[in-house]
Amino acid sequence: MDKKITEKLKENNYKLTEQREAVLEVMLDNRGKHLSAEEVLQEAKQKMPNIGIATVYRTLEKLASMDILYKTMFEGGKFRYELSDEDTHQHHHIVCLKCGHIYEFEEDLLNELESRLEARGFEIVDHELKFYGYCPECREKMRK
Amino acid sequence: MDKKITEKLKENNYKLTEQREAVLEVMLDNRGKHLSAEEVLQEAKQKMPNIGIATVYRTLEKLASMDILYKTMFEGGKFRYELSDEDTHQHHHIVCLKCGHIYEFEEDLLNELESRLEARGFEIVDHELKFYGYCPECREKMRK
DNA sequence: ATTAATACTAATAATCATTATCATATACAC
DNA sequence: GTGTATATGATAATGATTATTAGTATTAAT
């Protein structure tokens, strides 16, 4: 398992029970994906058939509070979770309004904006950026 | 009332009943604020004591779909609504992690990022940017 | 080794935000 | 005036999430 993750677990005195490990493994198995709690539950049940939805919710919430996971909402009124980036910089998301796929990108050109905010007295510690539009595949299909 | 809003209502054949007008007036009275559905209900009840929460939800949803309102989620697991900007550019938000206040700012330096995405085949039609940190007032208080 | 304290779990109840349903009211077309 | 369409408020229902509880497991103290 990722060394940084192990460190964070230790830092927070978070005992990794079998159930919690199953949840974390699901997230590690799905790098780059954004899973809802229900999706995590279904995959975790393959590793531990008796795991309960409440345990999954508690675990996801806790891992997010430790910055091991990142929690956000795209569409549909429920939260989605993904593994946090290993450096503390977060990537951004592009949501395709046609197929619903969520793409990620790394470029971070927000420094200018953050500088302006800090010039106005804000201290910025995090940000969240989402683009909405159409992915190359859907644009291709729409041309036909 | 705002001319652009009236146009959009007409375009969408959206009849402005007294109840819907009360909801819209609440939003107009609260420019720059981000109200939850419950907050809108409480203020709308001052204009129309009998208005129901279901009507408020239906109206907020409809006005958001017409780009008269903007719907987003900050914290707390419920949606908040605000009047959309009159040009189609949306402003951005800064959420203070201490007092919870939501600030707005206008600067739009995302063109470079959007250009890069479009160079990769995406068609971008909207974006959402939120910064999290501490506002000048809370930073002041934390220094004492 | 035993006991007490603490932590964790699954099941399920409860909560909350939101939406669906339904009966009634209002508006509109003819 | 009548029939149809739309809107409303109340409330039930839904879905996502959290709280509660009893039982179990782990850890700490002795």
The shape of chain A is flat
Mean pLDDT of chain A: 91
Report the span from N to C terminus of chain A. 45 Å
Computed Rg of chain A: 17 Å
CATH architecture descriptor text of the largest domain in chain A: Orthogonal Bundle
The biggest beta sheet of chain A, please? 3 strands, antiparallel
Strands side by side in the biggest sheet of chain A: 1-3-2
Write the element-wise H/E pattern of chain A from the N-terminal end onward.
HHEHHEEEEHEH
Query: Helix tally of chain A?
Result: 6
Work out the count of structural domains of chain A. Answer: 2
The secondary-structure class of chain A comes to: alpha+beta
Biggest interface: chains and residue counts?
A-B, 32 and 32 residues
CATH topology of the largest domain in chain A: Arc Repressor Mutant, subunit A
Please write the CATH class name of the largest domain in chain A.
Mainly Alpha
Proportion of helical residues of chain A: 40-55%
How much strand content do the residues of chain A show?
15-25%
Number of DSSP-assigned strands of chain A: 6
Multimeric organization:
homodimer
Low-confidence parts of chain A: none
CATH superfamily of the largest domain in chain A: Winged helix-like DNA-binding domain superfamily/Winged helix DNA-binding domain
